[in-house]
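Now for one record.
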Amino acid sequence: MKRFALALVSLVVLVAAPLAGAQPQQQGLSLATAQPLFPEKVTATGRVLPVISARIGARVSGRLASLGTAEDGQMLDVGMAVKAGEVLFRLDETTFRNMAMIAEAQLDSARATLANLMAPTRAERIEQFRQAVAELDARLADKQREEQRYKRLVEEEKTLPIRRLEEVQTEVMALKALRLAAGARLQEAENGPTPTEIAMAQARVHEAEAALKMAQDDLRDATVRAPFDGMITERFKSPGDYMTNMPPTEVFEVTAPDRLEAELRLPEAYLTAVQAGKTPATLQSPLLAKALTLPVSRVVAAVDRAKGTFTMRVTIPAEPRSGLVPGAFVTAAVQVGDQGRGVIVPLRAIVQNGPQAIVFVSQDGKMVKRAIEVGERLTESAVVQSGLAAGEAVLVGPVESMRDGATLPEYLRAAK
């Protein structure tokens, strides 16, 4: 019995000896896969918008007289197509025509005045001015002599009332004014107009020309035409309504349906992961025959403070868009996983080696030490900004069980 017990102990020792030498320092290790910080794709939602859209009103104020008509004679309304240059609506032109006529008459008057200044003065006219001056000189001399006589009678002889003297003095003053004006006309006729008078007359002509141009522009703009080929999507006014240019009154909204883009929104965390011209987006809508994969055409680098999102736009070509129309709801799978934004690993996988953080990576059945750059630390994990790729397996466990170049335990190789 004693010999049987000793033989049993020896058997236990022989069985236990290989286990004791099986690198017990590697026990308790596990593998964790580095997860991408962002998913490979994210879903954005938005609406289809026309690249070109305009709300059209008149530049001038007036009563809306009529709307344009289509080829079949029907009045333009929502859903109808229009061509560039086609009449959309007209204002009552009565006031604009009258203003143009007044401006034209003022221009004719200003031109006539300038022509009169520039024309050579006739000899007969100069002679008439001289006769008028001579006649006024004679009349003035007579009145001045009469003034002297009345003054003597009033002041010295006191035989005439002062009222008669005052009347004569008033007549003398009036004759002097007439003589001065006649002399100026004679001098102007003899010497011609001054440069200043000519410049002023020319300025009045230019002013009248500008006023006529403005009146003609107002008359022209009383008829409003389509600025581009498109479709009427809204009508805001009817004939008889009064239009103002300030604030502007709109009559139609016209959009160009052949040029569309999808306006999509994503959380601000993806702003740097989306690049115009590079990031692909797969658009889906019930109005599309099949999904469209297109590059993001524009990224608006601004974040909505209320929603915490940013806007990106995807230009939609005319050919493959099927029945997609402005205002349609669309979803898009946006590829953002390959932008090198970092990975997430368990905090226990990170070993601090002095100032340098490292992890041990499972590579070809061995432990490989890898230097990393650690970013934000979370509750039980951390963001690795560089040194590690998504999908790589890192070791988690006691630090003393990890050694650069060591062979992975069999159970970890089997797990892989």
